Amino acid sequence: MASLPMQLLAPYLRLTRKPLTATAERAEARLARRKRAALPPRSLLRKFRVEQRSVAGFSCYSVLPRAEGSSVPGTAVQAVLYLHGGSYISPISAWHWRFIARLAAAGHRVEVPLYGLAPESSHRDASGLLAAVYRNLLEDFDSQDVAFMGDSAGGGLALAFAQQLAEYSLPLPRRLVLLSPWVDVAMENPELAAVEAVDPWLSRAGLRVAARAWASGDPLADPRVSPVNGTMSGLPPTDVFVGTHDLPYPDVLRLESRMRSAGIPVSLHIADGGVHVYPLLPVPEGRAARKKILELLRS
Predict the structure, then answer these.
(1) SS3 content of the chain, % helix, strand, coil (to 5)
(2) pLDDT digits over 79-115, tens only?
(3) Can you name the CATH fold of 4-298?
(4) 3-class SS at 212?
């Protein structure tokens, strides 16, 4: 059963977030709006060294502990390539920066590329950007010191990029950590209807508008936009966090099944009654997930 804070959060999300994807018309309006990314908060700038640069025409932030050599002793993952969610049409938010700060506080360097959003950009722009960012990261770290991580759309993008690494002659990272990943943007799984009814945040009607904009003319089943359809063999160990009241949940179960069939070590962390991207939220399930994620990066 979901914790009381999670249960109390659901009506608030249904009132404030669900309308944003409730209809295609509202999603089209969001597409047309000017997008302004949330800047790193002052608290993050005070605690960490934050460097901004341009990569392939897009902003990329590096968030590092201020003291050199301040990483946790024995930490397996030294660097995290983090991709924010937002249905591929919304920019990075304050909630993302708070989560990124927790990763940096644990001694990890966090690379945060602000990939282009639809409709101005598409998945074709993102893959080249991520390849450039990852190459830069590999100048300072071995691939086995790096994890890919992302939430929602960012989780789907992290998986899709991992599946494309061979095309760029790039090595696999040590681990994938995916938070409520959007792995099938077509959303035609018949099991989605029951979860959509209890999800207080997401609706397929609006998300399909965002999906078509991100695909930019390519089929929604294309593995580059729906990585559940991509090649699983050879992927690194993967941990997936999802809630049972989270629209991507049925497709995450499909992803787990496909990974297991391909022999990929995959662990599914399910929060009963958990909502979308619950590891980022101020609820007991979120705190437990954040603790577990840091343990995974140390292991």
Answers:
(1) 45, 15, 40
(2) 999 999 999 999 999 999 999 999 999 999 999 999 9
(3) Rossmann fold (3.40.50)
(4) helix
Element (H, E) at 24: helix 24-32
Distance CA 109, CA 64 (A): 5
Write the single-letter amino acid at 153: A
| 3-state class (DSSP) for residue 15 | helix
Angle CA 194–229–152, to nearest 5: 55
Question: Virtual CA dihedral for 168, 179, 279, 43, nearest 10 degrees?
Answer: 30
pTM score over 0.70: yes
Q: What is the dihedral of CA 218, 222, 225, 229, to 10 degrees?
A: 170
What is the bridge-based pairing of β-strands 109-113 and 58-65?
antiparallel
Q: What H or E segment, with its residue span, contains residue 54?
A: strand 48-55
Label residues 182-210 b or e (16+ Cβ within 10 Å = b): bbbbbbebeebeebbeebbbbbbebbbbb
Token pair, residue 276, equals 């979308």
For helices 94-105 and 284-298, the axis angle rounded to 10 degrees is 40
Phi and psi of 249, rounded to 5°?
-50, -50
